[in-house]
C-alpha cells in the first residue's frame, strides 16, 4: 500500500476507535461507508466491494472492542451478567449474518445497511421513554435478542451497538451502562462474524491479493492498529457526557452514513 492510503486508513481507524469507545457501536457503522469508498477508488471488483468492506470492518472490531471494554470496565459500567446472557445468541447470529450477506449482491447489501442504520438513528432521535416497569427479559428472551443482534451485526459489519444500546435503554438500562455493555458484546460478535466471513469468502473468485476470505488484511492491520489507541479515549469521553448529547451524536452519525450507503445502493 502507498503512504497516502495508509494515512487515510489510520485516520479512519482513529475515528472508528473513538466512535466505538464513545458510543459502543464497535466502529463498524463509521468504517463500512469509508472502506467502501476506498475499495471503490482502488478498483476492487464491484460485486465484492461492500461484502469486503463489511467483513474488514467487522474484523477490526475484535481489536477495538477489547481496548474499549477495558476502559469501560475500569468505570464499573459493564453489566457482565447481561453480557453472559446475550452472548450465546450473539455467537449463533453472528455466524448466520455473513451467510445471509453472501446471498445478496452489492446493491442489495448496501440497501440493507443503509435502511438498518437509518432506522437506528430514528429510534435514537424519537427518544421514546420506556415504561417504568419495563426490564430486560429472562434467559429465553435474552437468547432471542442476542440472536437478532448477532444476525444484523454480522450482516452489516458492526459491533451490534446500534441495536443492543437502544434495546437495553428501552429496558431501562442506563445509557452509560448500555454503551459499556454493548462494547463488551463487540468481541464475540466480531470473532464469530470474522470466522464466518473467512469461511464463506474462501475460494471466492476475483478477490484482491492479501485477502482472507472477504477480509482485506492490509486494511485490517492498519485500521486495527489505529483504532485500539482511540477506543479508550472515546470510552473516557462517554463517561463525561450527558445522555441526551450521546444520543444526538449517535443519531447524526448514523443518518449521514445511512445516506451514503443508500446512495451507493442506487448507484
Automatic annotation (TrEMBL):
GO terms for cellular component: plasma membrane. InterPro entries: TM_pro_TauE-like. Its main location: membrane. It is a multi-pass membrane protein. It comes from the Bacteria. The chain crosses the membrane at residues 6-36, 48-66, 78-101, 108-126, 146-167, 179-202, 214-233, 245-263. The keyword Cell wall biogenesis/degradation does not apply. Keywords: Cell membrane, Membrane, Transmembrane, Transmembrane helix. Pfam families: TauE (PF01925). It is found in: Cell membrane; Membrane. Belongs to the 4-toluene sulfonate uptake permease (TSUP) (TC 2.A.102) family. This is Probable membrane transporter protein. It comes from Massilia cavernae.
Amino acid at each position: 500500500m502507498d503512504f497516502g492510503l495508509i494515512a487515510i486508513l489510520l485516520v479512519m481507524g482513529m475515528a472508528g476507535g473513538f466512535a466505538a469507545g464513545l458510543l459502543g457501536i464497535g466502529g463498524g457503522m463509521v468504517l463500512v461507508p469509508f472502506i467502501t469508498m476506498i475499495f471503490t477508488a482502488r478498483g476492487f471488483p464491484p460485486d465484492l466491494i461492500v461484502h469486503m468492506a463489511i467483513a474488514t470492518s467487522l474484523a477490526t472490531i475484535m481489536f477495538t472492542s477489547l481496548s474499549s471494554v477495558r476502559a469501560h470496565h475500569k468505570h464499573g459500567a459493564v453489566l457482565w451478567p447481561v453480557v453472559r446472557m446475550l452472548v450465546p445468541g450473539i455467537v449463533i447470529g453472528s455466524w448466520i449474518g455473513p451467510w445471509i450477506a453472501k446471498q445478496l449482491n452489492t446493491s442489495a447489501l448496501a440497501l440493507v445497511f443503509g435502511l438498518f442504520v437509518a432506522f437506528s438513528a430514528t429510534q435514537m432521535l424519537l427518544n421514546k421513554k420506556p415504561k417504568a416497569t419495563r426490564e430486560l427479559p429472562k434467559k429465553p428472551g435474552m437468547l432471542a435478542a442476542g440472536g437478532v443482534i448477532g444476525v444484523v451485526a454480522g450482516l452489516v459489519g458492526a459491533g451490534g451497538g446500534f441495536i443492543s444500546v437502544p434495546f437495553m435503554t428501552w429496558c431501562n438500562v442506563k445509557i452509560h451502562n448500555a454503551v459499556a455493555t454493548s462494547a463488551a458484546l463487540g468481541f464475540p460478535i466480531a470473532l464469530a462474524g470474522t470466522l464466518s466471513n473467512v469461511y464463506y469468502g474462501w475460494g471466492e473468485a476475483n478477490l484482491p491479493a492479501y485477502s482472507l476470505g472477504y477480509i482485506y488484511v492490509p486494511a485490517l492491520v492498519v485500521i486495527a492498529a489505529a483504532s485500539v489507541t482511540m477506543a479508550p479515549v472515546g470510552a473516557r469521553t462517554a463517561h463525561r457526557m450527558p445522555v441526551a448529547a450521546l444520543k444526538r451524536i449517535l443519531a447524526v452519525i448514523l443518518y449521514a452514513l445511512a445516506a451514503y450507503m443508500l446512495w451507493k445502493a442506487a448507484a
